[in-house]
C-alpha cells in the first residue's frame, strides 16, 4: 500500500463489468458450442460468479420489500436462468441465450408466471428489471380482471404511479366484462407486466444492486395489486 493511502475494506466493487457485456457481444457473434467451450471460463468469471453474488446480496434487500420474494443464489436451479436455449421446437438453433436473466419469484406462487414476482434481464444496451405476471392461464387472468372491476380505485393508484403496464392484448373485450369500463384496455390484457430500463453504465456501477432494489420498490405497487387479486400475501 502506498504511503499515505488508507485501506477501505467497505469500498463497493461492481458485480458486472464491461467484460460481462463483452462476453455477451462475443457470444452473439459466435453462438456455437465450440466457441462457448473455449470461452466457458470467461462466462463463469464474468457472469456466473457475479450473478450468484448479486442474488445472494439482493436477498435481504428484496425481503425488506416483501418477505415473500425468493432470491435463490444457487448457480443452477436457483434464481439464475440457464444460458442454454431450448431449441427443440425453435427454428433458431442457436444453442445459447445472449443475455443473463434472473427470476425472483413468490414464495407461495412458485417458479411460474402465474404469481407476481421480479425479473432482471442483462444484455448490452437492453437491460431492464420487470415485475408482474406473464401469460398466465385464463382463470388467473380473470381473477385480476375481476379485481380491477371490483376495486377500480386501487387499480387507479397503480396506474397513477406512472408505471407502463404492458402485455399482449385481446382483440375483443373478454366475455363477462363491460366494454364501457374505464379500464377496458387493461381488462383486455393477456399479461400484466411493467419494466424499468437500465443503462450499461448503471449495470457496471458498484451501485447497481441499490439501483435494482430501487426499481423493485417502484414496481412494487403492481406486484401488491396482483398478489391481492390472486389471494396471495405480499
Would you kindly provide a written description of the structure presented here, covering whatever features stand out?
It is a single chain. This protein is 41% helix and 12% strand. With 234 residues, it is an alpha+beta fold. The protein has a single domain, classed as BirA Bifunctional Protein, domain 2 (2-Layer Sandwich), CATH 3.30.930. Strand 3 (117-122) and strand 4 (127-133) form a beta hairpin. Helix 4 (138-150) crosses helix 5 (152-159). The longest helix is centred in the N-terminal third of the chain and has 26 residues, at 40-65.
- State the major sheet: 5 strands, antiparallel
CATH topology term: BirA Bifunctional Protein, domain 2
N- to C-terminal separation? 48 Å
Low-confidence stretches: 1-9
Beta percentage is 5-15%
What best-fitting shape do the alpha-carbon axes yield?
A: globular
In terms of quaternary structure, the protein is single chain
Q: According to CATH, what is the class?
A: Alpha Beta
Architecture per CATH nomenclature, i.e. the level-2 architecture: 2-Layer Sandwich
Number of helices: 8
Helix-strand makeup class: alpha+beta
Topology as H/E string?
A: HHHEEEEHHHEHH
Mean pLDDT: 93
- Helix content class: 40-55%
Counted beta strands? 5
Radius of gyration: 20 Å
Amino acid at each position: 500500500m502506498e504511503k499515505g493511502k488508507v485501506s477501505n475494506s467497505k469500498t463497493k466493487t461492481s458485480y458486472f463489468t464491461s467484460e460481462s457485456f463483452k462476453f455477451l457481444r462475443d457470444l452473439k457473434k459466435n453462438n456455437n458450442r465450440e466457441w462457448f467451450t473455449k470461452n466457458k471460463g470467461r462466462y463463469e468469471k464474468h457472469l456466473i460468479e457475479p450473478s450468484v453474488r448479486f442474488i445472494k446480496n439482493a436477498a435481504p434487500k428484496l425481503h425488506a420489500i416483501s418477505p415473500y420474494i425468493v432470491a435463490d443464489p444457487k448457480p443452477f436451479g436457483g434464481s439464475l436462468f440457464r444460458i442454454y436455449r431450448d431449441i427443440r421446437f425453435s427454428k433458431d438453433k442457436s444453442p445459447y441465450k445472449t443475455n443473463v436473466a434472473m427470476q425472483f419469484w413468490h414464495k407461495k406462487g412458485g417458479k411460474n408466471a402465474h404469481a407476481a414476482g421480479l425479473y432482471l434481464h442483462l444484455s448490452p444496451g437492453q437491460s431492464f428489471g420487470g415485475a408482474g405476471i406473464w401469460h398466465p392461464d385464463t382463470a388467473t387472468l380473470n381473477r385480476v380482471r375481476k379485481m380491477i372491476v371490483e376495486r377500480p380505485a386501487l387499480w387507479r393508484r397503480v396506474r397513477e404511479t406512472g408505471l407502463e403496464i404492458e402485455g399482449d392484448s385481446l382483440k375483443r373485450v373478454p366475455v363477462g366484462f363491460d366494454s364501457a369500463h374505464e379500464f377496458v384496455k387493461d381488462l383486455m390484457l393477456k399479461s400484466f407486466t411493467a419494466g424499468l430500463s437500465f443503462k450499461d453504465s448503471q449495470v457496471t456501477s458498484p451501485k447497481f444492486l441499490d439501483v435494482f432494489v430501487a426499481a423493485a420498490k417502484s414496481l412494487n405497487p403492481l406486484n401488491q395489486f396482483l398478489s391481492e387479486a390472486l389471494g396471495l400475501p405480499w
